[in-house]
Amino acid sequence: MKVSYNWLKEYIDFKETPEQLGDILTQTGLEVEGIEKVEKIPGGLKGIVVGEVKSCEKHPNADKLKVTKVDIGADELSDIVCGAPNVAAGQKVLVATVNSTIHPTNGEPFKIKKAKIRGEVSEGMICAEDELGLGTSHDGIMVLDTDKPNGTPAIELFESGEDHVFEIGLTPNRGDATSHMGAARDLKAYFRKELTLPETKDFKVEVNQPIEVVVENTEACPRYSGITIRGVEVKASPDWLQWKLRSIGLEPINNIVDITNYVCHAIGQPMHAFDADRIEGNKVLVKTLPNKTKFTTLDEKERELHEKDLMICNGKSEGMCIAGVFGGTKSGVTESTKDIFLESAYFSADWVRATAQRHTLSTDASFRYERGTDPEMTVNALRLATTLILDIAGGKVSSEVIDIYPEPIKEKEIEITFQNFHWLIGKSLDHKLILDILNWLDIKTENVTDKGFKAIVPAYRSDVTRPADLVEEVLRIYGFNEVELDEDFSADYLAEFNEFEPYRVQEDLSRFLAGNGFSEILTNSLTNPKYHEKFPLGGEPVEMLNPSSEELTIMKTSPVYTALESVAYNINRRNPNLKFFEFGRSYKKEDKAYKETEWLSFYLTGNTLEENWLDEPRKNSFHDLSTTVMGMLKYAGIRKTEIVPSEKGTLYDYGVVIKKEGKMLGLLGKLKKELVSIYGIKQDVFHAQLDWDAVLSVYKSDIAYEPIPKFPEVKRDLSLVLDKSVSYADIQQLAFRQEKKLLNRMNLFSVYEGDKIEKGKKAYAISFFLQDKFKTLTDKQIDKSMKALMNLYEKELGAVIRK
Prior knowledge:
Blueprint lengths: L1 E3 H7 L6 H10 L4 E8 L8 E11 L7 E6 L6 E5 L9 E5 L4 E2 L7 E2 L3 E3 L2 E3 L2 E2 L16 E2 L17 E7 L11 H12 L20 E4 L7 E8 L8 H9 L7 H13 L4 E4 L7 E6 L5 E3 L5 E3 L5 E4 L5 E4 L3 E2 L11 E8 L2 H10 L5 H8 L6 H15 L3 E2 L4 E3 L7 E6 H8 L5 H10 L3 E3 L5 E6 L9 H12 L23 H14 L3 E2 L5 E2 L1 H6 L7 E2 L10 E2 L4 H12 L6 E13 L2 E13 L16 H14 L6 E4 L6 E9 L2 E9 L1 H4 L8 E7 H7 L15 E10 L4 H11 L4 E10 L8 E10 L8 H19 L2 E3 L1
Parallel strand pairs: 14-17, 29-33
Antiparallel strand pairs: 1-13, 2-13, 3-4, 3-6, 4-5, 6-11, 6-12, 7-8, 9-10, 15-23, 15-24, 15-25, 16-23, 17-20, 18-19, 20-21, 21-22, 26-28, 27-28, 30-32, 31-32, 33-34, 34-38, 35-36, 36-37, 37-38, 39-41, 39-42, 40-41
């Protein structure tokens, strides 16, 4: 992206040289890859002087050449051979003297040398305007109307100027900086100076002949603004506008198109001008067209449209423009255009990006829309463009500003602590400095306390979505170089902050699981759609607009899909005893929005141990995985969880729900055979998945401990015969509700179902451990507690106590 030094100076006052300003832009995140000096007149017309043709004779050896004698202010006349048809004696002309370098409009610069042309000496060159880079005409030499003496440097006859242009390697996240105003906003925060932006004038509707606009696809086009201007004169742009565009590498076309380009590069809002008389039905439709509809773009190429290419159509639903990407041949502005319809819209970055990739098109407009434009800029851009058009091209406004914006895009609100800034930067910054920098970046701050505040981020900053982004904003203006490093370049300062960080919890639990024999896996976010078709899990999948292959066209709605590929891969290579865990995400569509959930998942299959001479092989079971998961939760300080049998669902043959204080933490069970068989897996796979956000919400980083009691624990056993529907969790819950003081823990050591007890019943053998931390329990206290528990089980659960 090119940014002009002079253009920036119009928006903000600074005294830095181009090189110094380049360093500042780079520091603030707009990396300057190079600085080029550009001249309004290439080469500055050095060595070009005013001359007067004193004589003009036919060349003796060439029909189309003439031999002239030209006064260039030297002691003697210069002999110059000229091939221009309009050269004549008495003319004032521009002469490129020997050893000067000329810079043609088209082609490379070249040096003028004394030469012989068809046998005649030529000491210079009488120039046409395109040979000096002053225009495009090559009809003949330039004939001057001037009283300047011969030999006068040519530069005195023309308005000269020079500029320095920064080539900025713009990162994809900085959609806000795709214009001179965007770069100036960063400088505003750096210099702490207000901006002076282009002025707009009030205008009124003089002729009420509007173009009707209908937006059928508001997902792809959340906001569409437009205005109609009639009676314009399409012609060449004024010199100042052409110079501005040329300085950043754009070739002027005509005043209307040049104004839309100027607005785009000035304030970052792409615009498009339509010939209003060529809009059939006097109506603009923003919609998609059927798949494989033919459309011819401005480069004269016929393209086949995709059903998800957003189009700007006329009243007959004929395409006029690929929205946000490229115009068409049938509605563009030409020299005969008298009435125009100006478009200024906010298009979805995702839609534009997908369309540009499908058609391998990259334009100034798509470059900006793909990165995200400012939804609040569309009307301002229209007013600026209309002001310029009325001044430069004339015409009358023939409609009010049309502005279709059904669901305004809200500013983002981010809660953050000052500690977060200090921890991530590695240096304590004054709270007022942090707030000032954000405010100068147009990020408002509310509810400010000693601990933190709420940041209100403008819609045009689509890259600022989380606390870490706010820290980056402050740091790039404060200066990365202002953060001191130790002599050994260590970052030990970060250790001084004891802030809760999710990634540290993840690292800690990963070590715990690895210590329990589990291996971590990392699988793709994309998966094969056939898995979801055969066994749908997790909701409606998110489809890729531009998939890399037919096997990877959706994002996984459940982490199971890709993890089972890893399980199958290992089993097929004779590695059947597996213990896996994975931190991953699932993705789905929900209520026209996208939802992303982070999970910690477990996969257990095969035998507990490899065959050995001491132990018989035993297959992994539900309880093996349950022991690991519950042990990990306890390690994370999450105790007193509830285990509730899950209802029969699509995922498990049998399983449970893990809860904490009524909040679901996750699921645990044996995956259905119908699911694992899709992957060719013939052995049982036990699975658990914990909602990572839910786990973090109840995670306790503090180590909980208490002294070992001095008084002994007492154990009593009970055998209960119950209905099969009664779970151990029900028994446990009742016990702790009844005996809150003395009951320390319980242990289920036997479960029996068979012909020795009544059909439909099962028998539990349970140990109860009682303890008083302050004194030794007496037999009377123990018997009283156990009798109360037995009475409760008989009454509440219909239990038969086997004595």
